[in-house]
Amino acid sequence: MMWQTLLGILAGLVAVYVVLLLALWMYARRHPDTVGMKDALRLLPDLLRALRRLAADRTVPRGVRIKLALLLAYLLSPLDLVPDFLPVIGYADDVIVLAVVLRSVIRTAGPGPLRRHWPGTPAGLRIIERLAGMPGGTVPSRTTEHP
What we know:
mainly alpha, single chain
C-alpha cells in the first residue's frame, strides 16, 4: 500500500516535470530572438563577473544581493531543472531563470549598478539589457513603487 502511494507521488512529480519541460520548450520556440545561444555563451564570462560584482556591492539592497548569490549558485551548479545536454531546452532554463532574476534586480536596484559593474563591451551590455526585458537595450526610468 505504501509503495503504491510513493509510486503515485513519483508519477505525479514526473508528470509535472514533463509539463514544465513542454512549457519551457514552447517558450524557447516562441521567443527565439531574445538572445541567441552564441551570444549568450560569448557573454557568459562578462555576465558572471558582473553578477559576482553586483552580489558583493554593499550599495545594492541586501535582497538583491541574496537573489544574485542564489542565481550564481544555480548557474554554477551541475544540477539543473533541465539537463544541459538536451538540445534547445537544456540551456533555456538557465537563460529564463537568469532573465527573471535580472528583471527583478533591475526593478529593485535600477539599471545603474548593472551598468557600473559591467566589464564587457557596450554591445554586450545592450544584449544583457534586452535579456532583462528592457526594450531595445534601454532601461525605463526607475519608479519609486515597489511591487
